[in-house]
Design a protein that fits this description.
mainly alpha; 13 helices; about 0% strand; globular
């Protein structure tokens, strides 16, 4: 449901071979993140009827079954991959698409969709920190500054702009769960970097979704055992239908298409529009208010992440130039 669902693979095509213009790519990419924003709102809409781990399990299962159709042509490569590295991929999917989403949907019972959408956008910060610890990737001074700025944005939103709340440490359990989900997704991103799976994006996504569905099944069963589904009605089914189909299978396909047209970097950069779409849809559909601390906090997070991403992009460019110069020699 978030950025970087697929790792970059050598099978990416250029915009010309993908059969689309840059303008079309941005339209598709923005539509993708509009649908992602809708997932947060749909989950909040049905939170009183649809238990979070059931929403997660059924969303993943339905999306998996739908995406098996366009991925069917790659079934032989997929089967060979599962035999070779299936367990690794299933565990990776369990963390990134199972645990992460389960935490997000649980958080929505305790916090707003606006807070959820904004705070979850700090996943790149958590990824930077984890990559520095686990992969020993260097963290430069500007990246450190960016992390501090973005963290200030999280704190501002979590305490609702109130110094009294900050001093009293009366933080919402929902906001803390969203931050835990961002850390979980960062762990997934680092696992992708470590694993370097060699499989096309779509069949690999099907494997990840399967891993997520398997991981969330026990939670769904426990909820049913406790009777958490007893008041399941219209809102719960609407939330699931949206999250599984437009906000699930269709969204994943659109993201795949936008990557084919724009490339992974440009397509992934559009992720920050998700905050805007979530806030707008939450205001329009749920009647949630957009407070000053949402705007300022979101701005701080975007600034902080831009510090990090721009430094990473410059470092990557220097690496490419250095490699070209070495080849000329």
């Amino acid at each position: 449901m978030i950025a970087h669902v697929w790792p970059v693979t050598p099978t990416q095509r250029s915009a010309q071979s993908a059969g689309g213009s840059q303008a079309l790519g941005y339209v598709v990419g923005l539509t993708t993140w509009f649908l992602v924003g809708g997932v947060f709102v749909a989950a909040k809409f049905g939170v009183d009827e649809m238990p979070p781990w059931n929403l997660c399990f059924w969303r993943l299962l339905i999306a998996t079954l739908i995406l098996m159709v366009p991925a069917w042509g790659s079934r032989q490569a997929g089967v060979a991959f599962v035999r070779k590295r299936g367990l690794e991929a299933l565990v990776t999917g369990a963390v990134g698409l199972g645990l992460t989403q389960g935490l997000v949907y649980t958080a929505l019972a305790h916090t707003s969709a606006i807070n959820t959408g904004i705070i979850f956008s700090t996943a790149p910060i958590a990824t930077l920190i984890l990559a520095g610890i686990l992969l020993r990737e260097p963290v430069g001074p500007w990246q450190s500054v960016g992390s501090i700025i973005a963290f200030a944005g999280i704190v501002l939103i979590a305490v609702q702009g109130s110094l009294a709340v900050l001093l009293g440490l009366r933080l919402s359990i929902g906001d803390l769960l969203v931050f835990a989900a961002a850390v979980s997704f960062a762990t997934y991103t680092v696992l992708l970097k470590l694993a370097k799976f060699d499989l096309a994006r779509l069949p690999l996504l099907v494997v990840f979704l399967t891993g997520g569905a398997i991981a969330t099944l026990p939670g769904a069963i426990i909820e049913i055992w406790h009777g958490d589904h007893s008041n399941l009605a219209f809102k719960g089914y609407v939330a699931l239908a949206y999250a599984a189909i437009p906000g699930g299978a269709v969204m994943y396909l659109l993201y795949n298409w936008s990557v084919d047209i724009l490339g992974a970097s440009k397509a992934g950069a559009l992720v920050y529009t998700q905050m805007i779409f979530t806030a707008f849809l939450a205001w329009l559909i749920l009647g949630e208010s957009i407070a000053w601390y949402h705007v300022v906090g979101a701005g701080l997070i975007v600034i902080g992440v831009l510090f990090i991403e721009l430094r990473k992009a410059r470092a990557a460019a220097r690496t490419v130039v250095s490699g070209q110069n070495n080849r000329r020699r």
